[in-house]
Amino acid sequence: MTEFAKSGVRVVVFMDSDPKGQHLLRATFTPTDQGFHVYSKDLDTKAAGGVGMATRLELLPHPSIKAAGPLFADVATEGHHGLDIYPDGPVSLRLPVQFVGADPNVAAQVAVTYMACKTDGVCLQPVERQILDVQIASR
């Protein structure tokens, strides 16, 4: 598990699995103050006129682990002034991963991106591609 807090959001990254046993790299983004939200993982800042920043979790290239499916969220987005945001409070993004080779423990890197805002338009400094070192275990 790896965690840090920056720009009003606490981020916790760890391994999880679904009921079928699929390995999932999970990042939970929790605004530290009430009334803040983060933007959708699918936000297109160009289409949004440069407003907001997509919430993302990315596994950086590594020979022993790779993404095995698309990134998905545990909560649905809602529209706000033409932008897709997650409701105020925490949101978890999950990335299916596949281990390559026999090593059940991998030292890898992930990148997270996000920006926290209030619905009244007050936004905190965006965090773009914060690189984190993570220990990932297949068991």
Question: Brief description of this entry?
Answer:
Helix content is 0%, strand content 53%. The protein is mainly β and 139 residues long.
Describe this structure in words.
With 139 residues, this protein is mainly β. Helices cover 0% and strands 53% of the residues. It has a single domain (2-137), classed as Sandwich (Immunoglobulin-like). It is built from no helices and 13 strands. The mean pLDDT is 91.
What is the residue-averaged pLDDT?
91
Put simply, the count of helices is: 0
Give the name of the CATH superfamily. Answer: Thiol:disulfide interchange protein DsbD, N-terminal domain
Main sheet summary:
6 strands, antiparallel
CATH class call: Mainly Beta
- Overall SS class: mainly beta
CATH fold name: Immunoglobulin-like
What is the end-to-end distance? 14 Å
Low-confidence stretches: none
CATH architecture: Sandwich
The percentage of residues in β strands lies in over 45%
Radius of gyration: 15 Å
Task: Tell the overall outline.
Answer: elongated
Give the domain tally. 1
Share in helix: under 10%
How many β-strand runs?
A: 13
Order of helices and strands: EEEEEEEEEEEEE
